[in-house]
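4.2 Preliminary Data

To establish feasibility before requesting continued support, the project team ran the inverse folding procedure on a target of 334 residues. The structure was first converted into the token representation described in Section 3, and no sequence information of any kind was made available to the design step. The complete token record follows.
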């Protein structure tokens, strides 16, 4: 006598447990978007000025520098790397451009030179990682010290006021309705759109994800892993150079002591935005949301009157929570 096992009725849906909720929250950029909306709702309730167009514009303006550095950081982390020197590279760019312009040289040439020098630093780090197989953490940690020292030697410990129209142009404001908008904000959003297209619509972008998932598998299918990693670090450093230009518009003073926490802030934005530190998984729009989360959090807590030390504490908790969710998601996929 045979026994048949009937399939469950089609109208019976599987139960969604706590694990499914965690998996949804860990999927970029859904979880980070929920967090951003939640913070906006909370601060709009506890303050009267958070939702003012001028304040929302200020949040984005304050996020422009870190948000641009975070784009390059996202590319590096997608390959399972890390770049601890991005903030110092951007400061180097501001000092080169600021000092040379103050010495009387042409602003456009100085700006181009600054971006080229920043890009060359990326070539160095990319070569050390891709050719010599050195750990990205060690390489970029070493470059952080080297670039910081070089910046202070070039500046001779001094700061340079930015008075040239080209260098400060990214900080110029125009109005969109009643909302003030800077050209730096437009450039940053344009860069996010460009990188989204590159990562999702080009072979280069697909190869970046493949390398992050498994470098050995990428080699087996014919991807030139070394050259792609070199191009990622180079491209990221080019973006840091553009971040230097945005910094000159946002802070009209080329200071060797500026952006001291920009490297950690950009990594925080990338991680909170859902990009996996293990590589191969992430979304550039998630990085933008992560950048805005940090900006909204700091702005909202400042409006409430919370000490900046508590702001750092809450941000640190968010980073740990984001990494924990990513790890839980990886365990569930195994």
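Position-by-position output of the design step:
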């Amino acid at each position: 006598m045979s026994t048949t096992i009937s399939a469950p009725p089609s109208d019976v849906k599987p139960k969604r447990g706590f694990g499914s909720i965690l998996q949804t929250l860990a999927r970029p950029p859904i979880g980070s978007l929920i967090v951003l909306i939640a913070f906006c709702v909370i601060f709009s309730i506890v303050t009267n000025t958070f939702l003012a167009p001028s304040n929302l514009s200020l949040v984005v303006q304050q996020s422009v520098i870190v948000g641009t550095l975070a784009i390059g950081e996202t590319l590096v982390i997608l390959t399972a790397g890390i770049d601890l020197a991005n903030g110092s590279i951007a400061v180097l760019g501001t000092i080169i451009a600021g000092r040379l312009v103050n010495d009387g040289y042409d602003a456009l040439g100085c700006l181009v030179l600054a971006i080229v020098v920043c890009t060359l630093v990326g070539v160095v780090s990319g070569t050390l990682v891709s050719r010599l197989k050195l750990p990205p953490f060690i390489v970029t940690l070493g470059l952080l010290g080297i670039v910081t020292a070089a910046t202070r030697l070039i500046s001779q410990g001094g700061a340079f006021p930015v008075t040239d129209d080209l260098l400060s142009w990214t900080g110029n404001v125009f109005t969109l309705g009643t909302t003030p908008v800077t050209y730096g904000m437009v450039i940053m959003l344009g860069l996010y759109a460009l990188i989204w297209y590159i990562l999702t619509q080009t072979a280069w972008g697909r190869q970046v994800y493949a390398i992050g998932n498994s470098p050995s598998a990428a080699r087996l299918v014919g991807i030139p892993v070394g050259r792609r990693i070199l191009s990622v670090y180079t491209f990221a450093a080019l973006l840091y150079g553009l971040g230097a230009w945005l910094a000159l518009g946002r802070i009209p003073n080329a200071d060797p002591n500026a952006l001291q926490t920009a490297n950690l802030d950009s990594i925080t934005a990338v991680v909170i935005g859902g990009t996996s530190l293990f590589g191969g998984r992430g979304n550039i729009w998630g990085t933008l949301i992560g950048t805005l989360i940090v900006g909204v959090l700091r702005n909202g807590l400042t409006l409430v009157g919370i000490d900046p030390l508590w702001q750092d504490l809450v941000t640190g908790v968010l980073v740990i929570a984001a990494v924990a969710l990513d790890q839980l998601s990886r365990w569930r996929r195994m």
